[in-house]
């Protein structure tokens, strides 16, 4: 099952992805996560992305698509995957479509999460990250056990 999740930041893509991961036993592919992973692994695309990030610039679409290509080629994606919040632009969508054709991959589902702006603002402004371990929580929906840390 190949799934694409769309929605504004705070719409619940990551939350819904967790349910889909459990149901279909497929990996979640988030560009932020795979960028960090590619950089940590020292891949060619990861090192290219790191140069832009170190300069405070956006990583170009061609590099992002290269990293997506590498990720989709990994073994754990052979039975499916969840694209979480990617693509974000029409050029990224066009590049992804071309890449998937070349890789002979198609999408089974595209899910758009539509959430009112006022709810999204509350979800985003309530997010917190533990400075020690990086765990995320929300002050209202998923509070930490100790204020400010996990």
Description:
- The chain has 150 residues and is of the alpha/beta class.
- It has 6 helices and 6 strands.
- Helix 2 (31-41) packs across helix 4 (61-72).
- The chain starts with a strand and ends in a 12-residue tail after the last strand.
- The mean pLDDT is 89.
- Keywords: Kinase, Nucleotide-binding, Transferase.
- Pfam families: ADK, ADK_lid.
Number of DSSP E strands: 6
Could you give me the name of the CATH homologous superfamily of the largest domain?
A: P-loop containing nucleotide triphosphate hydrolases
How many helical stretches? 6
Cα-atom Rg, whole angstroms? 16 Å
Pfam families: ADK (PF00406), ADK_lid (PF05191)
GO molecular function: AMP kinase activity; ATP binding
Keywords: Kinase, Nucleotide-binding, Transferase
Protein name: Adenylate kinase
Task: Describe the secondary structure blueprint for this structure.
Blueprint: E1 2-7, H1 13-24, E2 28-30, H2 31-41, H3 44-54, H4 61-72, E3 81-84, H5 90-102, E4 109-113, H6 117-125, E5 127-129, E6 136-138
From the structure above, extract its key features.
150 residues, single chain, 4-stranded parallel β-sheet, Rossmann fold, alpha/beta
Structure summarized in a few sentences:
The chain is of the alpha/beta class and 150 residues long.
């Amino acid at each position: 099952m190949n799934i694409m999740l769309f929605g504004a930041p705070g719409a619940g893509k990551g939350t819904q992805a967790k349910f889909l991961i459990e149901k279909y036993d497929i990996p979640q592919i988030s560009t932020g996560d795979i960028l960090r992973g590619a950089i940590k692994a020292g891949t060619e695309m990861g090192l290219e992305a790191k140069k832009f990030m170190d300069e405070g610039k956006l990583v170009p679409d061609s590099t992002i698509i290269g990293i997506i290509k590498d990720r989709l080629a990994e073994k754990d994606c052979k039975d499916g995957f969840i694209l979480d919040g990617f693509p974000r632009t029409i050029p990224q969508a066009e590049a992804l479509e071309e890449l998937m054709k070349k890789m002979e991959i198609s999408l089974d589902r595209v899910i758009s999460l539509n959430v009112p702006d006022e709810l999204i603002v509350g979800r985003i402004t309530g997010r917190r990250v533990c400075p020690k371990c990086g765990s995320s929580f929300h002050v209202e929906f998923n509070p930490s056990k100790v204020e400010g840390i996990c």
